[in-house]
Amino acid sequence: MFQDCLNDGSAMFILTSLLIAHFVADFYLQPHAWVMDKVQHREKSLGLFKHICVHFVLTLSAILLFVGTYSWEIWLGFVFIILSHYAIDIWKTYQSFKIKYFLIDQVGHYVVIAGVTIWWLSVSNIEFRSPTFFFETHLWVAIFAGLFGLVFLYKPVALTQILVLNALNLESNPNYQFDVQSIFRRVLVFLSSITLTPMFIILDMLIRALESYFKHRQEQNRVLIRKQIAVTVFNTFCVTLAYVYFAQIVV
Question: pTM, whole model, 2 decimals?
Answer without folding.
Answer: 0.85
